[in-house]
């Protein structure tokens, strides 16, 4: 099946990758960090603020692709410390409703830059 790389205007510019690709009605979203549309980090040192920006980015990408957050069928979440789980889950509950989509949650040593505390990638099916 052919796929299309989406050129998005609702999220920060990328260097060396694309935010999303669509194959059929499946949307693959690259890991989203807490950068705003201008590429500035939101909430340095604050997991809840960073998580809110991540979900804002996911929402913007989905809406620009013709979907919404309820279309997410799978997520992978990367956190840089175990203590961030509670804040992440609190914010996730503000954006998504139960039952939540399947989610693999990984605690890792670092993301691309040390000030990034969270990254979330998602797959969505948009009908």
Structure description:
With 127 residues, the chain is of the alpha+beta class. It has a single domain (3-125), classed as RutC-like (60s Ribosomal Protein L30, Chain: A, 2-Layer Sandwich). The chain contains two helices and six strands; from the N terminus they run βββαβαββ. It has helices at residues 47-64, 85-95; strands at residues 3-6, 20-23, 26-32, 72-79, 103-107, 118-125. It starts with a strand and ends with a strand. The relative contact order is 0.24. The mean pLDDT is 96.
Distance between the termini: 17 Å
Q: Share of helix among residues?
A: 10-25%
Topology as H/E string?
A: EEEHEHEE
Structure summary, number of beta strands = 6
Number of helices: 2
Envelope shape? globular
Mean pLDDT: 96
How many discrete domains?
1
In short:
By secondary structure, the chain is of the alpha+beta class. The chain has helices at 47-64, 85-95, and strands at residues 3-6, 20-23, 26-32, 72-79, 103-107, 118-125. Helix content is 23%, strand content 28%.
